[in-house]
Write a structure and sequence with these properties.
Low-confidence stretches of chain A: 242-246
Oligomer: homodimer
Helix content of chain A: 40-55%
Shape of chain A: globular
Strand content of chain A: 5-15%
Order of helices and strands of chain A: HEHEHHEHHEHHEHHEHEHHEHHEHHHEH
Strand order of the largest sheet of chain A: 2-3-1-4-5
Mean pLDDT of chain A: 88
């Protein structure tokens, strides 16, 4: 979930200064339009890692916009009055009215996260709090509110550097953080439980936006732009769209960078290394699947990637290591008649492996947020809710002991072109290249955005995405095998711990 | 939640036999239309008390309709195949396809209830299961499914009689029930946790229908009619209503009886008894509110009722007992400008008492499902979701130690007419009677239905409705005071237990 927020998003000062005036003006205009219409409030939630620029961003928003129409609320210590009433009372009394904006800093999410990180309760109670937050937000959206949730992120290394800098700065050293962020364990727990919270509460009516917090120019422009897009969309929506809640749009990152670009596609293996490593990893996989600890688990491997990225070849190298009775490969193409008569995920549920078994999905449920999104085969509301549905689905698999590994095989446009041309030359490969493939190339940019959103919203601690640099097929095949092996070993190790 | 299902709903044989042929024909027609359109599946969940006619009803539905288009699924013991996969897999594989009906007998709800009743886990884990069920059903509805949930209910006494009868019947004595229903504690726990499950999962896109199970004619017609109404509404809805999910309509009970009719409005107190009891209860209330145990609680009393039912007089008798610094009375009329700029429940949240205090709501948040529903001030989707929102709201109050008592003061039409006329005669009461009051009288039947639904959907174990027979004002006033006193004493007692 935080992959895209650790790639070093940055905007140079010149670009920043060139863009700010127009953004400010548009935000102010949106704000006055909001006041004029007085149809709905804007509720902005600010959460995330200490030192990632939450406070500075809120300050900036107040400078950019008309602060008379913004209420900034913090929820630190409960007052006596608040302590004497149900916990939610303090949030209700601070809600912005229709036509106004409220920035809730330290909201219901901070409370549940702090409680969980400090070990005041376990996951079941955290889940109760999460479900309470969902009901609250659902209700607010049904009542017309536009909710925008920002999570400011830093990698652990970035956070440490940032805290150090703040500590040394006399202007900031008075800041006391509610969690003891100096401890590396606190960061780990905060990120782990934060991910659980984000996974469950990123719903289509109020999705989270994860913002990388290192570069102030980037984070300010990113927040401003998301805010502006969401407000403009909601202000333009017809008045009675109560069952089509304001969906804060997903958009391209403002510095045009996404996780895919941060891959080093020049990575490669020479033939000798490849053959040695391939054999080693294949033997290791065969051993792991024969291991008696495998009886408590199953394995699901998802292969997605650019056309001609080499999914088929990678899958064959995985299969080559194994007894055919132990695995099955499910190629996902257009759904059958039976499948069309069922909810979207049904066709995947039917192929879930039993304990001890291994299923390879050659393309998968991610088609919903890739090809169906890009080609317009389903409505935006449908693919937007799919992220949450897929996370729920994979969580159920993981809870049942299934190890889920997901690969995106990435190549660049030039490599794809070469492979397409090559395929047209070789008779037995010619069937692999169609008009559709050429057409898809024209949508390269749209697919890139869709892949970025997919990774951001569905790469979870329990089922992370592995991005595979696949310009070199050898590198890709070995990385795939090694990733599977490491995931299985980690699962076996976790068993031991929990016993 | 089960109030309406303990009033002895019944349909005589003649009426039953006269109505069944038309119902059957209409159901069959709907079934074929469903098949023809093949746009969505119908998923029917069957749950409830043992012996309440679940099995017989399912059998009957198969006789009435075309069984080739119905799949009846039971989920008893998990098979080996099922045990080897995530728990939800067994449900996914049994889902009916678009155009077909599936009756799920022993579904996700049975599993979580059995686990909780048997003490295999606590409330937090039950809540996790509930939230999983909500996600599943929300997703199914988003995918177009029509979900109809039936809870078959019997009072404890009725259940015992029914089990006894079954036991003595050689045709039925082989039936073994999964829970040991002979134990009275099992019934209590099942009903208690059942109510928690119903309260949380009765959402506007898939509400529960509670069916009193004693009389086979009544329960069969009731189920058939609800099924028919829901299917017809969904079949007639325009094709792309995906964000306007099929809402199974709430309707008048088929035997035209509801909880309000079952009140004995002739109950009265003579003057002497009244004065004695009034003073006793007032003194008791004053004592309870001064009690130091009150520091851990607050008290909220909601007064709703027919026009001229005597709410004001009853409230005055409550207040008369108390120190004015300890209570406040909040009259609810049309919302102010500030209140209209906020979500519906905001105007009530702002008046929630601090610990130790007592707030009387003279009319309340129930306006949403009474006057706003009947007068069409809000859309059906809004008042339908309000039941769940109100239950969530009151649960938060109760969790914070607030004792919530809710009164519906009921009078009959004749008594109301007399009081209206009397008011017109007495000068200082004349301001109490308006054109609106006369107009409301014409909607007596609609208000009656709305009150019935309100009680069914919001009378919960934690915040039950008290229906007050108010033709006699003395009877009503004493009953109100006594109910408040008993609720406070019960709360104090529960404190002691939990310490």
């Amino acid at each position: 979930m935080f992959e895209s927020a650790e790639i070093g998003h940055a905007i140079d000062k010149e670009t920043y200064e060139a863009q700010v005036p127009a953004l400010r003006e548009a935000l102010l205009e949106a704000q006055y339009e909001l006041k004029q219409q007085a149809r709905f409030p804007v509720i902005i939630l600010i959460n995330g890692i200490e030192g990632a620029g939450k406070g500075d961003t809120v300050k900036l928003l107040n400078e950019w916009m008309d602060p008379r129409l913004i209420e900034v609320r913090t929820f630190d210590q409960q007052t006596d009055e608040e302590l004497a009433r149900p916990p939610a009372w303090r949030y209700w009394r601070q809600l912005p009215a229709k036509g106004r904006m409220g920035i809730l800093f330290g909201n219901w999410y901070s409370q549940m996260l702090q409680g969980r990180v400090h070990g005041q309760f376990k996951d079941a109670v955290l889940d109760q709090a999460i479900s309470g937050a969902e009901r609250l937000e659902q209700m607010l959206c049904d009542e017309g509110a536009l909710i925008i949730k920002f999570w400011f992120h830093l990698s652990k290394k970035q956070m440490k550097a940032r805290l150090k800098a703040l500590q040394d700065d006399p202007l900031h050293s008075w800041r006391i953080s509610p969690l003891d962020w100096q401890q590396s364990q606190t960061y780990d727990r905060f990120v782990r439980f934060g991910e659980r919270v984000l996974r469950r509460t990123s719903r289509e009516y109020a999705p989270w936006h994860v913002i990388e917090g290192v570069d102030p120019h980037y984070r300010s422009l990113a927040v401003g732009q998301i805010l502006l897009d969401a407000m403009q969309a909601a202000l333009q929506a017809p008045p009675q769209t109560r069952h089509n809640p304001h969906i804060a749009p997903l958009g391209e990152s403002i510095d045009h960078r996404n996780v895919i670009d941060s891959l080093d596609l020049s990575r490669r293996l020479d033939k000798e290394d490849y053959q040695e490593q391939l054999i080693t990893e294949q033997a290791r996989l065969a051993g792991l699947l024969r291991d008696k600890r495998m009886r408590r688990h199953a394995l699901v491997a998802v292969f997605e990637g650019n056309d001609a990225a080499g999914k088929g070849g990678a899958i064959r190298r995985v299969a080559a290591a194994l007894d055919p009775r132990q695995y099955s490969i499910v190629p996902i193409a257009a759904p059958s008649e039976d499948e069309r008569a069922q909810p979207y995920l049904w066709r995947f549920w039917r192929h879930i492996p039993a304990r001890g078994k291994f299923t390879v999905f050659d393309r998968s449920w991610y088609g919903r947020v890739l090809v169906e999104r890009v080609e317009g085969f389903c409505a935006p509301a449908d693919w937007l809710r799919a992220y949450g549905e897929i996370n729920d689905f994979e969580e159920q698999l993981c809870d049942a002991g299934i190890v889920v590994v997901k690969f995106w095989l990435a190549i660049d446009e030039q490599t794809q072109l070469e492979r397409f041309k090559e395929r047209e030359q070789i008779s037995f490969k010619r069937f692999k290249i169609t008009e559709d493939d050429w057409r898809n190339r024209e949508k390269w940019g749209q697919y890139r955005d869709a892949v970025g959103d997919m990774v951001d919203r569905t790469s979870t601690e329990i089922a992370p995405w592995t991005l595979v640099e696949a310009n070199d097929k050898r590198w890709a095949r070995v990385k795939v095998l090694r990733t599977i092996n490491e995931a299985l070993e980690a699962a076996f190790k976790a068993d031991k711990k929990s016993r």
